[in-house]
Design goal:
The chain has one domain. Helix content is 65%, strand content 2%. The chain is built from eleven helices and two strands, in the order H-H-H-H-H-H-H-H-E-E-H-H-H. It has a two-stranded antiparallel sheet with strand order 1-2. A hairpin with a 2-residue loop joins strand 1 and strand 2. Helix 5 packs across helix 9.
């Protein structure tokens, strides 16, 4: 029934020009209205999301978006028994820094999020939404529907991510790298903590890696002890953006669930047309 209602709404445009009637009560709904409504919804979502995530514990205190240690750090943790056997000094440094590192990574993400709203706003302003009606009707352009009754309440967020993710990474990376270099946990930054961990681990590998691998092999384990070199900035930037998109999606869902609770007239007009066509049911 959801899809049938949406097809009726969509059909109204199929036989009319871009400025013809799509939804009746609040006046005509044009293609320009649809695009403006979608961009307004995305701006509301990004503004709200950046405000939430830039607060203290915005990332760290939320299990859904908390940024975990990079896989390289997890690999080091898994080999700590061997590090401890051969170099207690390196092991002590690594052990003492791991918890601080995960906190510093998330504090850095919270710091960088203060600047994300402007970066997102620019991306949204430049976004060419050529499939506005399809997105409004809960479809992600280029993705096939699982069934005729499907309605994707994250369609606008997914479209934004598909179209802008790489450019957002490029624009956001400098802000994130700057935040990673700030002393946000005690007298240490995420970058300095990561450098201490990797330099101590790499020193262990250089001096004892072959012996540790042989010991592991004798114990029946095939473990490689390789030096760790990774761009923590790239990793944290991508994870932080994933968290932001998750929160933007939450806001899109809230708008679709009840567009009339928002102060924006264009939100009420555009999303209200679909809301009414579906009888107030726009949940997935």
């Amino acid at each position: 029934m959801k899809k049938c209602s949406l097809l009726i709404v969509s059909a109204l445009i199929a036989f009319t020009s871009c400025d013809d009637l799509l939804s009746g009560e609040d006046g005509e709904l044009s293609t320009n209205d649809v695009v403006l409504g979608l961009k307004t919804a995305l701006n509301i979502g990004t503004d709200s999301s950046t405000a939430i995530l830039s607060a203290t514990n915005g990332y760290y205190g939320d299990a859904l978006v908390r940024i975990p240690l990079p896989k390289e750090a997890m690999a080091i943790k898994e080999k700590m028994d061997y590090v401890r056997d051969y170099s207690s000094t390196a092991a002590n440094v690594i052990d003492s820094k791991m918890d601080d590192l995960i906190l510093a990574i998330n504090r850095s993400a919270e710091e960088a999020a203060k600047y994300a709203d402007t970066i997102f706003s620019n991306a949204i302003a430049d976004l060419s939404i050529v499939d506005g009606l399809q997105i409004l009707n809960g479809e992600v352009p280029g993705e096939s529907l699982k069934s005729a009754a499907d309605f994707d309440s994250l369609a606008a967020t997914k479209y934004l991510k598909n179209k802008t993710y790489n450019s957002l990474v490029d624009a956001y990376a400098p802000k994130m790298n700057n935040a990673l270099g700030k002393k946000l946990v005690g007298n240490a930054s995420a970058t300095s903590l990561w450098n201490e961990i990797t330099s101590n681990y790499n020193g262990f590998v250089t001096q004892y890696g072959d012996a540790a691998r042989l010991a592991a092999k004798i114990a029946g384990k095939d473990i490689a002890f390789n030096e760790v070199n990774t761009d923590i900035g790239e990793y944290v930037t991508e994870k932080a953006l994933d968290g932001l998109f998750l929160k933007v999606g939450d806001q899109e869902k809230a708008i679709r669930k009840n567009p009339f609770q928002w102060a924006s007239d264009i939100i009420k007009k555009v999303f209200g047309s679909v809301y009414e066509a579906l009888g107030g049911n726009t949940d997935e």
